[in-house]
Amino acid sequence: MVNTLTPEAAERAAHRPRSLAPAAGRHGRARRRQAVVAYLFLAPTLLFFAVFLVLPLGFALLLSMSRWTGFRLGDIDPVGLDNFTGLFADGSTFLAPILTNTLLFALGTVALALAGSVLVATCIDRLRFQGLWRTLYFLPIVTTVVAVGNVWKYMYEPGGLVNGVLNALGLGSTAFLQDPDTALPSVVVVQAWATVGSAILVLTAGLKSVPQAYYEAAALDGAGPVTVFRRITLPLLRPSLLFVCITQFLSGLQSFALINVMTKGGPGDATDVAALEMYRQAFSYGDWGTASAAAFVLFLVVLAVTLAQLWFFRRKGEDA
């Protein structure tokens, strides 16, 4: 028996393959056009990223394995890993006290800024005119580091405000920036004070996101303020606390201008940090290779500590 098709069915069968292929082609061209438009919009950002981050990073990596005085590119002399080994050779001060001071400075900044921002943010969350208080605490952020360093430097002087208060309390004067035992903690206090405003803004925003139903349920159960803060507020603030810890730690590791203004790394090497040493090696001694090697060592330290903080907070979140 011979199968026959009606004229309408035969026409549909004849047109079906021809109609699908052009549709697929049109969709493919539309996707390609969308991709081209997307890359055109991204091109300025990608160009900026390449010119101001990727290329300098590659050049710094080249310099870290070379000897260069900073004048002519033709004078770059490859030395392999000598710059890195020189940082940790016998007699080098990079590991101790420079890198040690850098870590202590960053950790002290994180501890003070985190404790202060949590306390102040919790208080502001219970006060009226919260916008005014947040603005006041944010003012040090928009003040230049040089101005902040000079003001605090004069406040720490024997006849300054801080010693004046201590004398009024009968505690006696202290040579804050002239004593190797107190110089680094004194600068840490200024660094924490100057950066705590941004942490307060982050934490107050985090407190606003905590549902009030949790506090109401805790009040019905008779939980005290300390229990509510430890069992409800802190766990729900974990993402904000993680952000504050990482940003404050990075700020502490990269601090240069404040220390340069207040102590210039002194007295002796009590406040000598990695950023100050990199500046000194490059611009004072003309040793760009050692400066670049120190920068990469600092980068690895920053990466390791940041990953450790992420792991710690993630594990605490899973345990909770």
Characterization of the model:
This protein has 320 residues and is an all-alpha fold. The protein has 2 domains: 7-64; 93-319, MetI-like fold (Orthogonal Bundle). Helices cover 74% and strands 1% of the residues. It contains 13 helices and 2 strands. The protein has helices at residues 7-64, 82-87, 94-124, 130-138, 145-155, 161-168, 180-208, 212-220, 225-236, 238-253, 257-262, 274-284, 288-319, and strands at residues 66-67, 77-78. A two-stranded antiparallel ribbon has the order 1-2. It is flat. The mean pLDDT is 86.
- What structural category do the secondary elements indicate? mainly alpha
Helical run tally: 13
Biggest beta-sheet profile: 2 strands, antiparallel
Sum up the overall morphology in one term: flat
CATH architecture name of the largest domain: Orthogonal Bundle
CATH superfamily of the largest domain: MetI-like
Q: How many runs of DSSP E, i.e. beta strands? A: 2
Taking the alpha carbons of the first and last residues, their distance comes to: 75 Å
Strand content: under 5%
- Report the CATH topology name of the largest domain: MetI-like fold
Q: What's the order of the H and E elements?
A: HEEHHHHHHHHHHHH
Mean pLDDT: 86
> Whole-number radius of gyration?
30 Å
